[in-house]
């Protein structure tokens, strides 16, 4: 199945989110006077690494959810949950995917 508009909107949010996270990280590294994410002691470093790992895991799950948005309603629900806890823009493709999956189930 080719990408639907729901998936395309999900990919747009996904890449904008990744671009903004990478940009903020680079700006923090290039301009250390703006200490937004630069750890300054061991506990901050450990916390930063844990947060980075969690963000990577969430983004991997989001990518899988968007790719499999039309397999079944499960992936739309996963994307909806992630949208509620992390990036509200993921709610758009999630709700759209739920509607499309419901329509597909009604047709069958």
UniProtKB/TrEMBL annotation:
This is DUF805 domain-containing protein. Keywords: Membrane, Transmembrane, Transmembrane helix. The chain crosses the membrane at residues 12-30, 42-66, 73-99.
